[in-house]
């Protein structure tokens, strides 16, 4: 998926930069990159892709030319100013000055993230985050010194709802969810945030199976009744079908682990089942197991089979279903929502969110902090510009 989507979007992005009106790319000082130039031929084909491809894909994402080039490409819920994003990135990392080395996938990801931040800043109403690997390192929790706490509070005070969408699921045990974000909840109490602010925080657990909110008085987490937020389709999931899905998934996980000679510990919950290696193994073995289950598991219900980095789990539903339900609960449209995560590969559980909103792909919590700070900076700039324009109009009206 990375290579397919990356190469297609890289061609679109760089053709937009090289062939944009006013020769935008030629305006960059010191351009001498044969590696880029070679990738941009033939020019007339890439020109058409750059200027028509993205717009066509936004209008008809299932039948666009871009979809045929890269079948796994997702939807674009906002326009992306890729040339501007490239210039912003290039000003710091001088990509255009390289003679022999073309952009790598991480650089492409950064440029697309910058474009998405600028595109989403003005209309953003809901931003959600994966937990492990995005907000904190795998196996850790949000402690009181986590820099994301201040950023969350700033976002919420800016009238933006903030959510954490995680695979972790503890049915009926809000305290276990609390233990993962204890530092954040402590900050809510420390700052004496009113309910108007804390009501903007949401935690989705088990991919899509549990929604929790902050109690206005105790500042502890509490479950939101299913009837208040689940879609009719989710409420219709039958217990028998859920059991059948998890039984079949358990068999495939154990058989796959045996085939790969990987001893594991089985973990079975109400709406998930997974295996954790009991001896050191390599990432590729977990990838093999996750993809094997994806390819062979058949169910009446939607499910997510994913590599968690240190385990492989199968959950009922997926993050797209959960995020879609949260968006409906908050009456948000896709262009008003942004999901930040670190697992958008074939075996990642963030991948499904591309179907319902825009995304920012990060590699670690440090990148998450960087892009959220950029988002707040861009948002402040837009607010200042809007305020200035409003003041100017007011003065003109008075005269």
Strands, helices and their partners?
Layout: H1 2-19, H2 34-39, H3 43-59, H4 65-69, H5 82-93, H6 105-120, E1 126-129, H7 148-157, E2 161-165, H8 174-180, H9 182-190, H10 195-198, E3 201-205, E4 210-214, E5 221-223, H11 226-229, H12 232-235, H13 239-259, E6 264-269, E7 272-277, H14 283-296, E8 303-307, E9 312-316, H15 319-330, E10 337-341, E11 358-361, H16 365-398
Parallel strand pairs: 1-2, 1-10, 2-3, 10-11
Antiparallel strand pairs: 3-4, 4-5, 6-7, 7-9, 8-9
Comma- or semicolon-separated keywords:
four-stranded antiparallel beta sheet, disordered C terminus, 399 residues, alpha/beta, 16 helices, single chain
Quick structural gist:
The chain has helices at residues 2-19, 34-39, 43-59, 65-69, 82-93, 105-120, 148-157, 174-180, 182-190, 195-198, 226-229, 232-235, 239-259, 283-296, 319-330, 365-398; strands spanning 126-129, 161-165, 201-205, 210-214, 221-223, 264-269, 272-277, 303-307, 312-316, 337-341, 358-361. By secondary structure, the chain is of the alpha/beta class. The protein has a 7-stranded mixed beta sheet with strand order 5-4-3-2-1-10-11, with helices on both faces. Strands 6-7-9-8 form a 4-stranded antiparallel beta sheet, covered by helices on one side.
């Amino acid at each position: 998926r990375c290579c397919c989507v990356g190469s297609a979007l890289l061609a679109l992005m760089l053709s937009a930069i090289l062939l944009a009106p006013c020769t935008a790319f030629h305006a960059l000082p010191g351009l001498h990159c044969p590696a880029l130039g070679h990738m941009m031929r033939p020019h007339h084909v890439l020109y058409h892709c750059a200027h028509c491809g993205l717009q066509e894909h936004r209008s008809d994402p299932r039948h666009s030319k871009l979809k045929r080039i890269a079948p796994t490409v997702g939807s674009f819920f906002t326009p992306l100013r890729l040339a501007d994003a490239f210039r912003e990135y290039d000003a710091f990392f001088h990509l255009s000055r390289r003679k022999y080395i073309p952009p790598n996938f991480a650089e492409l990801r950064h440029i697309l993230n910058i474009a998405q931040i600028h595109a989403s800043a003005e209309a953003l109403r809901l931003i959600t985050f994966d937990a492990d690997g995005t907000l904190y390192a795998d196996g850790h929790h949000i402690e009181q010194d986590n820099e994301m706490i201040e950023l969350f509070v700033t976002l919420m005070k800016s009238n933006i709802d903030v959510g954490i969408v995680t695979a972790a699921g503890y049915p009926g045990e809000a305290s276990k969810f609390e233990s993962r974000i204890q530092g954040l909840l402590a900050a809510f109490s420390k700052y004496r945030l009113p309910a108007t602010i804390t009501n903007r925080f949401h935690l989705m657990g088990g991919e899509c199976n549990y929604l929790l909110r902050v109690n206005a008085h105790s500042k502890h987490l509490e479950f939101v009744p299913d009837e208040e937020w689940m879609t009719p389709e989710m409420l219709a999931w039958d217990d028998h079908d859920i059991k059948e899905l998890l039984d079949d998934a358990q068999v495939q996980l154990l058989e796959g682990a045996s085939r790969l000679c990987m001893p594991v510990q089985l973990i079975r919950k109400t709406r998930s089942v997974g295996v954790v290696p009991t001896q050191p193994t390599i990432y590729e073995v977990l990838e093999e197991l996750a993809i094997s289950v994806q390819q062979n598991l058949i169910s009446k219900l939607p499910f997510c089979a994913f590599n968690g980095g240190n385990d492989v789990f199968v959950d009922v539903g997926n993050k797209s279903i959960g995020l879609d339900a949260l968006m409906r609960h908050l009456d948000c449209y896709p262009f008003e929502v942004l999901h930040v995560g670190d697992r958008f590969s074939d075996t990642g559980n963030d991948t499904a969110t591309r179907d319902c909103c825009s995304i920012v792909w990060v590699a670690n919590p440090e990148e998450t902090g960087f892009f959220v700070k950029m988002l707040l900076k861009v948002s402040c700039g837009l607010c200042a510009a809007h305020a200035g324009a409003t003041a100017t109009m007011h003065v003109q009206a008075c005269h």
